[in-house]
Each structure stands twice: as C-alpha cells, then as structure tokens.
Amino acid sequence: MNQIADNIFLLTSVVQQLNTVVIIDKDYLVVIDPGFFPGEIAEIRKFLQPWETPSRTRLLALTHSHFDHIAGVPYFPEYAVLTSDAWDRGNERHAIRRLEQFDTEFYVDRPWEPGHLTPLTPQYAVRHGQSLGPFLFLQTPGHTHDSLSIVYEHVIGVGDYLSSLEFPFINASLKDYRNSLALIAGTVRQHSLTTLLSQHGPPAYGTEIPTRAALARNYIEQMCEIVETAHHSGWSWEKTLSQAPDVLFQNRPIPLGLIPAHERNLQTIWAEYAQEHTLSTRHPESGGSPGD
Ligand SMILES: [Zn+2]
C-alpha cells in the first residue's frame, strides 16, 4: 500500500492500474473500489485489519458499476456498501456478465461459481451533495449514469475521470460528462483541493489537476469537431469513423488497445448529436445510425 496523503492509502492492481483507495478516518474506515484479483484483495484485507476497530464505521464505496470496480465487493461482507442513489442496475447486470467472461477466460478463481455474483445491496445510496461524517458525495454521471465522486479533506476521488492513462470514456452521455468535468474542476477550486485520485493510474497533485482537465476537454473537442463536420457535410458513419485515428490524446495517437473504446466514444457523440439536432432543427441529411 502506498500512502498518498494523511490517512489515505492506495493499492494499485496489476490490471488496468486499478486503484483501491483506503481512508482511515477517526470514525470511519473507507475502502473505495475494493480491488480485483484475489491476492491483491487479500493484501488489502490484511492491511485493514489493525484499523478495523469497533468504533469505526466500515464502508465500501463504489465509484460506479463497471466490472473491475465491483469484483471485490463479496470479499468485504461486513462492510456497508455505499453507492450513488442513481446506481444503474442494468449496467451492473452487464458488469456481472463481463466479470464472468473475464474470470472464465483467464481462470480467475473466485469464492463463488462463475456468473453467480449476486447484485449488490447498497446500505447507503447517496444523493448529489450529500455528506456523511467528513465525506461529501457528488454525482458525476457521464462515464456511467451512476458515477460518484468523493471529497475528503483536501482530496477528491473521481472514479474513472481524469486518469493520466486514458482519454475520457464516455459510456453514458457526453452532455453529462462535460457537466461532470466542470463540476469536478469547480469543486477543486472552491474547496482548494490539492489531490485528485483517479481510479486508474497515479494521482494528480496541484497544477496537474487543471492540466488533466484541459487534456480531457481537448480530446472531447476534437471528437465533437469530427461529429459536427460529419453532420453538416452529410458523411456516412463509415466516413466519420475513418476520421477517428486523427484524434490525439496527450498529443499522441490513441494506443492500439484503446481504439475500440475510442470508436465507441465517437459513436456515442454521433448518436447524441443526431438526437439533439433532429429534435431541435430537424436536420434532414443527418440520417443514419452509427452502425451496430
Ligand atoms: Zn469505468
């Protein structure tokens, strides 16, 4: 476990550099996204043991319902699960399938039969702006509908936003995603936050926080430009998709392994643009669906 601030520790998984964050507060012991591989989870549980005193409320906070973020939940049965009250059951079902697919492909041994992970039961379903002890919860949808950010002292945990490893993954909605980026940036300024924890890769400190936000916005702007040009010029989806390799993130081309996620983003932005413009301006030549 790496200590990254007073009372805050990080364990980074070998897969996707997925972080588990542990916050050891006076009255609370909080685990944010409880790890992925059984060996790593065992290490986290061992680390937690001395701090699991009767006076501390034990919480398992989930930043969102993707499979890598929920895989560790059953290993912490005595922790109360905390999620956004917008928890997306459909996405969770999909995540359970995705986990089954991963575990059965790579022979990951779990203490349950493949596919028999039960949907979780949140004891705390938090609203936007709700506080609990020293924690403030913000709903930050866009990556998923149920994405949750957590503020503690001078630190904000933002789930899968603003990672140094990946461009924005816009799985739910571009509009929400942009609003959430603005909300996170505003919260950092307003509360003079110094540390930002993304759930994949290293934290951002100080001035690196606005730099990451600018890189995320720059990626989104490039994608929107393609989609706007496509709709105004009446491009087919295939022609639009052929522009995807021109988009850079951190001034570099998209890495091979992330191209499917990049193309999904373009599809999401394409569909959202078409929907908005059909409703408001009835753009006749912007037809066509973005493929399968
Ligand atoms: Zn995610």
From TrEMBL:
Pfam families: Lactamase_B. Residues 17-200 form the Metallo-beta-lactamase domain. InterPro entries: Metallo-B-lactamas, NDM-1-like, RibonucZ/Hydroxyglut_hydro. This is Metallo-beta-lactamase domain-containing protein.
